[in-house]
Write a structure and sequence with these properties.
about 130 residues, binds zinc ion
Length: about 130
Amino acid sequence: MAPGLRRSPGIQTRSKPGGPPERPMKPVRGFVHLETTAPYVQTCPRCRRSILYGLAEGIAARVDVVPISGTQEAAAAAAGIQTFTLRRTGLVQRDAIRRTDPALASPVLAEHRCPPQPQQLSLLPAPGGSR
Ligand SMILES: [Zn+2]
């Protein structure tokens, strides 16, 4: 090492004979791709319902807290709504292969979609004054 340069304390190197004692190696946390995080409860900012939020293999997942059945999952898949399996370690995104895996059978949670909001037109009286 050139004089004047200091060794970074985070970088582990092999100790030379007669040098300082070797420190135990620590796991280095670098960039984690496709990271999965344990979900936590959050409130949807739009509809104020409780949802679960977490990273599922690098994708931000917002899911409803109520599990769905197999029939509901088929309907959700047909509607283009993503489904996830809740595990202790995080949410597992379900695809056609994972839907057949019995280890990922339940609980299945659907991607959160806010319920339809009432529109101003439905609040106005009908034409002709029938209301
Ligand atoms: Zn919502």
